[in-house]
Amino acid sequence: MPPKVYKNYIKGEWVEARCGKGFENLNPADKNDVVGLFPASDKCDLDAAVDTAKQAFKSWRLVPPPKRAEVLFRAAQVLVERKEELARDMTREMGKVLRETRGDVQEAIDMGFYMAGEGRRLFGQTTTSELPHKFAMSIRQPIGVVGVITPWNFPLAIPAWKIFPALVAGNTVVFKPASDTPLSAYHLVKILNEAGLPKGVLNLVTGSGGAVGVSLMTHPDVGVITFTGSTEVGREVSKACAPDFRHCHLEMGGKNIILVMEDANIDLALDGALWGGFGTTGQRCTAASRLGVHKKIYKQFVAKFVERAKNLKVGNGLDPSVEMGPCINDRQAQSVHNYVGIGKNEGAQLLCGGEPLTGGEYDLGAFYAPTIFGDCHPKMRIAQEEIFGPVVSVIPFESFEEAIEIANGVVYGLSSSIYTRDVNRVFTAMRDLSTGIVYVNAPTIGAEIHLPFGGTKQTGNGHREAGTAALDVFTEWKAVYVDFSGALQRAQIDTHT
């Protein structure tokens, strides 16, 4: 049976790329499995989508927010109904195991219901005036066309984090998903269409970053770009938006750490280190790719950690018994392997893994063994740079103060974790860890949608996703003054004469 052919979604219609070209979406666990054929769009397709969104904004911004929210609520209900189907398709196109793709869909469900509630809570402030017979307030207003550029590792959750708050705030959207995961993007757009989103409000254009992504982030009619991906590409997004001061929201890399103190519950910390380091095959911006362990328990902890990692079952994520899936593609697996070579050359001790998995079903996919380096110096490249694969660097330390210094000694600041029973250390770590997210006695992954998500330093540019903080990305504040005195009143002048 030939693979299914998918199309772009522009102006409420499913349309082919104008150039007529396409690309294959392959299952990273089985390269013989073609998930689908998708449009390899170009600037012409992108321009048409932006123009459509620009026109649709004129009417969508005037739809009352509670009515906009009803669309999101219905979409969330459909996501609930189709959760298993969506999860299985996601595992097939990007590889992570079913329990993780189910969680990915659940995040989209949660965000749909949460942002539907914000349709009645787009609060501003009312306040007093310094002048008599004068009323003062602030209100949120939508920005216009939002360009959404998303990665492949959370192909439903991250688009939902961006698209749902953008829509409920009254913006229109042009959505460019990662080329490795266009099927999940197609499903989300189709569901929102079924839920009653008016034509032109949400547009989907698939294709490469060079052909579609660059055109989107440089388009003068796109009021804000929201991007999740590498720091290198995020820097280019920032440069593209800077000349005409268009807004951009950047969610980029992480080099996250779990600190295991000498008084930690070791078994609990082991569970966290394993899940944080090898969940999603380490392909998360929040992955615990660094593990700091106190020297008093270092040998004991590392021996157990290596044993657990060696016993992880790696394979096709559709198999319920599999614990870790493949890398997203051969290119990413090779990048991981290159970093393993760097770690060896730096003098880190390779404790397990360090090789692609071969033989049998492994030859069909981009599989890599769970890899642990021990006795790492915190300034080694493998302990500084984001690898985005199943590689964990273990760093010994002697004191709590040294642990905090190691944790903060990277250019990123997304997520951090500490395992300890000492409440004083807990609160000191909460204060001193320079990351946007801090976990106590839990790994660095597992954010909840009603709290702000994002990081410091080169992880982002100060904005946050999720929670009510997400609305700040997609709205402008407007201050409104109503003078009902019937006379000219001059602020800061008439009050001090």
Provide an overview of this structure.
Helices cover 36% and strands 21% of the residues. It is globular and about 80 Å long. It contains 14 helices and 21 strands. The relative contact order is 0.14. Helix 3 crosses helix 4. It has helices at 43-60, 65-81, 83-94, 98-118, 157-168, 182-194, 209-218, 231-241, 266-278, 298-310, 330-346, 400-408, 423-432, 470-474; strands spanning 8-10, 13-15, 22-27, 30-39, 125-127, 134-142, 145-149, 172-176, 202-204, 224-228, 247-251, 257-260, 290-294, 349-352, 371-374, 391-397, 412-413, 415-419, 437-440, 456-457, 475-483. The chain has two domains: 8-252 and 460-479, Aldehyde Dehydrogenase, Chain A, domain 1; 257-440, Aldehyde Dehydrogenase, Chain A, domain 2. The protein is α/β, with parallel strands linked by helices and 497 residues long. Strand 10, helix 8 (231-241) and strand 11 (247-251) form a beta-alpha-beta unit.
Strand order of the largest sheet: 14-15-16-13-12-18-19
Shape: globular
Q: From the structure provided, what is the oligomeric state, counting identical versus distinct chains?
A: single chain
Mean pLDDT: 97
Low-confidence stretches: none
Rg, rounded, reads 24 Å
Architecture per CATH nomenclature, i.e. the level-2 architecture of the largest domain: 3-Layer(aba) Sandwich
End-to-end separation: 84 Å
- Specify the structural class: alpha/beta
Question: How are the SSEs placed, and which strands pair?
Answer:
Elements (H helix, E strand, L loop, with lengths): L7 E3 L2 E3 L6 E6 L2 E10 L3 H18 L4 H17 L1 H12 L3 H21 L6 E3 L6 E9 L2 E5 L7 H12 L3 E5 L5 H13 L7 E3 L4 H10 L5 E5 L2 H11 L5 E5 L5 E4 L5 H13 L11 E5 L3 H13 L19 H17 L2 E4 L18 E4 L16 E7 L2 H9 L3 E2 L1 E5 L3 H10 L4 E4 L15 E2 L12 H5 E9 L14
Helix pairs in contact: 1-7, 2-4, 2-6, 3-4, 4-5, 9-10
